[in-house]
Amino acid sequence: MKRILNVHEAPILIFTILVIVLFSLISPDFFAINNFKLILDQNITMFIVAIGMTMVILLGGMDLSVGSVLAVTATSVGLFLSKGISPVIAALLGVVIGVLCGMVNGYFIAVRRIPDIIVTLATMYIFRGVAVGISGGTWMNNFPEGFRFFGQGTAGGVSFPLLAAILLIAVFIYLLKFTRAGRRIYSVGGNSSAAKLAGISVPKTKFMVYVLTGLLVGIASVIFAAKVGSVQASTAGNSLSFEVMAAVLIGGGSIFGGVGTIAGTMLGVLFMGIVKNGLIIAKVSPFWVDATTGFLIILAIVINTLQRARQNKGKEGDLV
Amino acid sequence: MSQPVLSMQGISKEFPGVKALADVDFELYPGEVHALMGENGAGKSTLMKILSGVYSPTAGVIRLKGKETAFGNPLDAQLQGVSIIHQEFNLFNNLSAAENIFIDRPEMAGRFGRIRWPKMVKEAQALVDSIGGGEIDVRQEVRHLGVHSQQVVEIAKALSFKADVLIMDEPSAALPENEVKKMFEVVRKLRSQGVAIVYVSHRMKEIFEIADKVTVLRDGRRIDTRPIGEVTEQSLIQMMVGKEVQQLYPEREQPHGQEVVLKVNGLSLDASHNISFELRKGEIVGLFGIPGSGSHTVAERLFGLKRGNGGVEINGRAVKITSPGDAKAHRLAYVPPDRHRQGIIKPMSIRQNISFPTLPVLSKGLLLDRDAIREVSTEYMEKLRIKAPGDGQSVDFLSGGNQQKVVIAKWLAAKPDILILEEPTRGVDVGAKAEIYSIIHGLARDGLSILLISSEMPEVLGLSDRVLVMYKGEIVHEYARGEADQEQLLQRASHPRKEGAAK
To answer: What is the pTM of this model?
Structure first.
């Protein structure tokens, strides 16, 4: 039992199960296969973007621009499609645009050493503005049949977006845990001066993380556009950055960097999805959903810190 | 004797305006523990930084195993076989011990950079076991380990580079007494394996216990290198201290008052135990200890930065101080040791810095009283002779000495009864030192009671009416003014149990 409690993801896992039990008791409609499928399906974009945000927060950084990157990518894909470009090429170009956005962030943060919060605050406006500009303020819709596959198609009976998400999660869990590149992220976030002394390039590591995040947002936005079927540049992915950051922190990530796992984050996304879904099914007034969500986020994070406090008990710490 | 594994010849290092090292020779043989000693500012750390690849020397030659070499950066030095363990550990608290030892090492990765965890854990465990750290599970995160174990991990990390030369900078500073013994066992084991160890320390007792040879630096020069059997504590201290310092300190013209202003009773916290002393009106009491002696925690406790046991009385009344706000309310002021991090607010002006702690007084209702603020800042700028075009000048552009005066000024503006000064002249030049000393003197003459915590012996001896010596968290001796010289002081501070040496 003690060993289980020491697993990094234990608090959020236990809390998620508690919340599931609670909602199941409140409403019989909640505990149903179809409802769980719905929760997964509604949060595919979050799952994928949160992979990138986990890495950013592991560095001790934050990325406020992911929602805007999603908007500019999805809008561009819509434009490409309306110009008659084939769905596959349009999707690939969309991913490339995501990567380019990541490179812009990475350049200013890693190479020019401007604090991440400032850079991504600025690019949050820039990317959103570009998205609105190129869209001319109109909705992107009427996507061709071939494109809808990315959002609604199935492969071997499983929905394509879910498959893509699972694949990406697996790849990045492997990357973070089992490769030098992944461990560099943990080392830079844990103690960047020690990382430097060990010969690790802090700027390169940071740059890589922001580019990978751009890539992931690019993929997510293609799925998003194909799934929703219409994109409005000014609102797409509006609150995405904050929701995803919240998911990482709920999943045990530390805002100071160095601590966090993708598995934890995925539970965090799931937790937020379950809470939103459950509150609606439980017929909580929609006006109170946000406040309740916020309250549960704080509760989840407090539970995480309790685990850390317990593990550090008996050790002298510098409180100043 | 065999060939030296490392030889440094004619090493000089100049920084703008300062010659930190002048023509220093240093030789190191395999399987020896070579102590490096010197006062603060003698050049020890500069020499170690050159040796570990942080700085490159302005002049001189480094030979490693007979071959001339240069270290481009710390990693380069490590790869060539010279590793350093800093006083402050450089560990990734969020990672396992094994990973700390082998972070980002190509030999621990397979194709596509895939980490070979089993191999890493196995080799790390073997390495840790070989230096007597068998009780450590290298899969544990470092933050869950105790200090001794963390140090073992640091040593294992250094050795993982197949180090021929291991530099240990104040390795006992972070360790409790019983763990120092364990650390010595590790050092002896390494020595028997042929590793050459540079042991940098202030602590006499340790030097005589562990070192084979000792080199003393003073003012950036090498004074001598001797086998440990040929020196005594006295002769070492003599070498370190050298000539008498010039007259920096004003004469004390009148005696201080008799009423006890501050009474500390049985204060205990972290590494310090049962500290008791009294401070009288207008008295300067020096608190001297080598790094790690716990003198810093006394200040932190008195000023409410940390909590601990024991009682504090101010002007005869027991007080409870649990925050700097409490301390301020009881007319205590604290000039902290690190002015950059704890003292000045760089982008702000002199005026803003000086008025900062007193703003509640310098306000009319909810608004700041600009005239009063200007008045106070001008007054103290003059009083402390802060050299600047005006009090609107940003403190960032002032010299170290003037910045320090700003820090002192801001606390004087709060009109304290008791002033705790910690390292008041760290990193300021001699001219500014003399000025700060005369200011401190003037303050005491005007009735301010001062607790002077410093690791600079001449300063403590030159200014204090009484000197309390701390060692390993306890006050081990008290000297009246003029009773002790630097040698006795250092001896008490590094080797307290030797009886009869001082009086």
So the answer is: 0.78
